[in-house]
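JOB MANIFEST
job_type = single_chain_structure
chain_count = 1
residues = 278
[input]
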Amino acid sequence: MGASKPIKMVFADMDGTFVATDKSVPLKNLCALDALANFGIPFVPCTGRPVSAVPQEIWGHRATRYGIGANGAVIQDAVTGERLHVESIQKDAVLELYERVRGLNATFDVFADGRVYAERWRYDAMGSYGIDAPTLDVLRKVRQPVDLDVPHLVERAQAIEKITCFWKSEDDRAGLLKAIEGMSGFSSSHGHPKNFELQASGVSKGYALAWLCGHTGIPTSDVVAFGDESNDVSLLEAAGTGVAMQNAIPEVLSVADATTTSNDEAGVAYFLERALSY
């Protein structure tokens, strides 16, 4: 299905959307970036990862003009490297949440100042949590294990952009959910079936899309966004045309204006080929 509106900017989630399940980047999607560059349409990778963990063949592509990281907490210029906008979580809220969940079998990954830190023992335990192998490999590469506890990490940080908690058992999931629901100061979603992702209240990928459109002067009605998971709902809602992947969860499918093939079938390229007739 093609977009009936003009396309002036394209936003796409990474994992489960632009990136295949095995974390490779489909060749057809890279060809779609070539087409966007030729048309002069900026591409914006939108991820729960830090922008530094966007695959280099995407981040370094001539079509990629901006990047959204940490689920909307960070908006960065892909050409100059300048961090255009950062939304921080209050440190007191982070410390309170940590005290509530510290006894659970769960990670407490601190996204701070463009990097991701994990207490070493939690980092080492991730392999026993039942996380799929491709995701676990990315998690280990992106996170820096440290011999500090979270309070000391928080004390040293300038801006805390996001907290991610991967859980081991259903009891741990229930404990995390209870702790999160009883707190203010956070917006919560998930980018993987076994995690909770927390940003400052009101921050989301959709928030970042709207901010970037305001910054560039491109109307939100003229942008297309692709996604598959809970943390992509706001992204699709904010875009003029929200496109759900075939592999998207029902929550995403319910808000989409259109659907495309799965991430393993280069669904982003499939949609753009038809929308732009290249």
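[summary]
Residues 76 and 83 are 4 Å apart (CA to CA).
The domain at 9-86+204-276 is CATH 3.40.50.1000 (Rossmann fold).
exit_status = 0
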